[in-house]
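This week, think about what follows.
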Amino acid sequence: MRENTLLKEFFRYVCLNILGMIGLSCYILADTFFIARGLGAKGLTALNLAIPIYSFVNGCGLMLGMGGATKYSIFLGKKEYRQGNRCFFHVILAASSLSLVFILAGIFFSETLALALGADREVFWMTKTYLQIILLFSPAFIFNGIFVCFVRNDGNPSLSMTAMLVGSLSNIILDYILIFPLQLGILGAVLATGCSPVISMCILLKHKFSGKNHFGLEKSQFSPGFMAGILSLGIPSLITEVASGIAMIVFNSLILGLSGNTGVAAYGVVANLSLVVTSIFTGIAQGFQPLASHSYGRGKKEEIQKLLHYALTLVLFISGITYLVFFCAAAPITTAFNSEGNQDLQKIAVMGMKLYFTSIPFMGLNIILSTYFTSGEQALPAQGISLSRGFFLLLPTAFLLARLFGMTGVFLSCPVTEFIVFAMGLLFYCKRNPPML
């Protein structure tokens, strides 16, 4: 009976979070589509150069949200409610400090960042504009990431999903209005993206007055050690988010030397679709995490193993369907983002899509394994998986394969990295647990 209840809870949390995360990923995908239609290949290039900074800002919100909410769930399982509020206080304090840093960076260093990310004369001002506005809206992205995680882990995943979906829908509507009727170009796209988390947070306020809210801003003494514990559990989420940004920076640099701005625009199509794929697996992981952390807090290890089995099975099922779609429909999908009918862009993007997305199953399995370790306060293996797929293995693999095989090597570097990291993560899991995968 308990297993049936656990499975129902798993699918309730996971389905709601997948829908919410897909909606969240549409922030950038909507920008990609409308910018491609309104500004062409140059607009796509500028967007692709600026996205890594968005990924980092959003990743900081996820780091604080996932780290704090994971600790919060564990304390809820132990019925230590004051410690849960202490988590929330520390996270809000850290978010306020980070937001100030990002705002100052947007005011004073947006031009420097645009140049550092590789923007040339043709796309410099579009890249600089996107970067500056994203950084000025950073408090909205960070605090929205925190509230989404805490509300979900406080037993209200449906409201979290609603907030993310409505925020994303508003982004799509505003994208169209600001780019086409109002003719604001890249400024319109980034303003639409920046307004979306504000709308999302307004919806999340409902939880505060629902009578189901168990966390609040209860002032306590700041503890660096306590904050470090929260960050250690949140860093894998940051790295997972930032990994795509780091990959974009490295790949943009490599591709500029191989295929110029057209190659960067083609990679931008693939990379932005990858954000949607990643969001599906992140949704599964974020649905799995509160249940696993709560079971961990109650000392129910067998429940965690069952939840992990459910999550990995679902990842493999979704991976097969997703890759089949990308393989069979690569050409029409690329055409939707290729408003100028650029044949070189079309050829590179179609080839890249078929190669790059062979990484899908291993990407999903790695995200789930990292979240599994985080849920049980095993920070080191979680960080090891995230760091390897985002930095330690991905970067040298990209440089090596690009040198050997050109653009083909660039697109293959992600699946090669994800496969190696999964093998490492599986070995680490098997050393600590019975073979239930």
